Amino acid sequence: MITTIASAAAVRPETAIADARDTARAFLEGLRQPAMTPDAADTVVLVVSELVTNALRHGGGRCTLELTAHPDIIEVAVHDPSRHVPRMRTPDLNGGTGGFGWPMVTRLAHATAVTRRAAGGKTVSACLAR
């Protein structure tokens, strides 16, 4: 099992999201066999991007990204200070207020979970095929 932890800073969310994607790519490239297919790696990076974006936008403006490689899955976990859990909502096709990320994550992942943390906040996690 391999784990990496990276913080996504609140100062400039655009940079933090790009940094999270770069961290995920580097993490996946560093894995030993079995290597991931390009499509599976792209899916992990997309889920990282969505979860970090949601945490920064809706979870208090700061978060921590944790990636863990298990034999058959990659676990993406994002910790943020908000106690509000993600919810399904109708995507906004005209106003640009979102609603696409969480449904996409739940469709791409084999499993998702939201865990409230004793110290406050929550962890949103997704397990994806390796």
From TrEMBL:
The entry's keywords: ATP-binding, Kinase, Nucleotide-binding, Serine/threonine-protein kinase, Transferase
Task: Write down the Gene3D superfamilies for this protein, in alphabetical order.
Answer: Histidine kinase-like ATPase, C-terminal domain
Domain of life here?
Bacteria
Q: Which SUPFAM superfamilies match?
A: ATPase domain of HSP90 chaperone/DNA topoisomerase II/histidine kinase
Asked if the keyword Chaperone belongs to this entry, the reply reads no
Which PANTHER family does UniProt cross-reference here? ANTI-SIGMA-F FACTOR RSBW, ANTI-SIGMA-F FACTOR RSBW-RELATED
Q: Which residues form the Histidine kinase/HSP90-like ATPase domain?
A: 19-126
Q: Which InterPro entries match?
A: Anti-sigma-factor_SerPK, HATPase_C_sf, HATPase_dom
CDD domains, per database record = HATPase_RsbW-like
Q: Mind listing the GO molecular function terms for this protein?
A: ATP binding; protein serine/threonine kinase activity
Q: Kindly name one Pfam family recorded for this protein.
A: HATPase_c_2
Which protein, by its recorded name, is this?
ATP-binding protein
